[in-house]
Specification:
Layout (H helix, E strand, L loop, with lengths): L1 E7 L2 E6 L11 E8 L3 H7 L16 E8 L11 E4 L9 H4 L25 E4 L7
Length: 133
């Protein structure tokens, strides 16, 4: 599949990337129907977010259609239209239980296009799908 890949400060390209796949039973795979670019993406492209490594698929804001779900996903099924949240929530840690999803310590927070591949691609993996769509 194709994805918008960060290549370092000021460098990006449409490139062939690995297909999105379920990696955790709480994941869903979506076909990305539309994305938006925000100021954070521009900061990444400007090299201002050093945690984003070259080779990362960009993007953390999308709408799409569910094509596959992991075995622990209860609230979604193939064909559902979803908004992929820019902030993922494990739902288990203290911060998520308090509604402070951006501080998630259970593997969520701002991860799409930051620490895992993002949504500016044909398909995307959405972790914690029941809580992050």
């Amino acid at each position: 599949m194709k994805g918008l890949v960060y290549g370092g400060s000021g460098i990006r390209s449409w490139a062939d990337v690995a297909d999105a796949r379920i990696q955790d039973p709480r994941d869903a795979i979506i076909r990305v129907d539309a994305v938006t670019i925000c100021g954070t993406d521009l900061h990444i492209l400007g090299g201002d977010v050093p945690e984003v490594e070259a080779g990362r698929v960009l993007g953390h804001e999308a709408v799409g259609t569910v094509v596959e779900t992991g075995g622990a996903v209860a609230g979604l099924r193939a064909g559902d239209r979803v908004l992929a949240s820019c902030i993922s929530a494990c739902g288990i840690c203290r911060y998520c239980r308090e509604g402070a999803y951006g501080q998630c310590r259970g593997g969520g927070g701002w991860i799409l296009g930051h620490t895992i591949d993002g949504v500016q691609s044909e398909y995307a993996r959405i972790p914690f799908a029941d809580l992050s769509t």
